[in-house]
Amino acid sequence: MGKDNKPRGRMSAYAYFVQTCREEHKQKHPNENVVFAEFSRKCSERWKSMSEKEKHRFHVMAEKDKKRYEGEMSKYKASHKGVEKGRKKKRAKDPDAPKRALSAFFWFCNDERAKVKAQNPDATVGEVAKELGRRWNECTEDQKSKYEALAAKDKARYEKEMKAYRSGGKSGKSSGKGGKSAPSKSKKESSEEEEEEEEEEEEEDDDDEDDDSD
Questions:
Q1: In this structure, what CATH number is given to the domain that contains residue 116?
Q2: What is the pTM of this model?
Q3: Alpha-helix runs per DSSP H in the chain
Q4: Which end of the chain is less packed: N or C, by CB atoms within 10 Å?
C-alpha cells in the first residue's frame, strides 16, 4: 500500500524483467555502483532481443500483479467512496483560471520524462515518476538552479495572471502564438497528463519528506 493506503501501482512485464536483472546484477557484483542510465539501456536492448517465450514468465508475473492491483483498488475505492467524491468536487475548476505555476521538480520532469519513457518503454506512470524522483535527487544544486529559475519565473507569471483573474478580467489563461488558444486535448490525453501529474506530485511530496528527515 502506498500513500493514504492507496494500493501500490501494478508492475509491467518489463518492470519485472528489470527488477530481475537488478537482483542478478547485485548478486554477481554486490559492491558495484550501478549507473542507471547505462544499466537501463542494456536492459532495454536485452528485452527487445528476447523471444516471446523468454518474456512469457514476466508477462505471467505482470498479469498476476494486475489482478492483485485490481482487487486492492476495488476495495480501496469502496472504502474511500466519500473521499473520492470530495476530491473530484475540489478538483473542479474554472477553465478560464490561470494555469498553476510549476515547481522546479515539474520543470525537470518536463525535460526528462521523454528520456525515461524511451529508456523504459514498458514502465508504468508510477514507475516513470519514481525514476524521475530518483534522478532529481541525484542532481547537483547547480543542475537544479536552471529549473528553480524557471519555477520562479513561472510563479511570477501565475501571480500576475491570478491578480488579473481575481479582479474580474478573467484573462487568466495564456494564449498560444499569435494570441490563438492552444489546441484542445482529447479526454484520453488530459486523463494521462493528470495521472502523470498526480504521480509526480506524490513523488515530489515523498522527496520533500525524505529531505525533512535528513
A1: 1.10.30.10
A2: 0.49
A3: 13-28, 36-49, 52-79, 81-91, 104-119, 125-138, 141-166, 187-213
A4: C
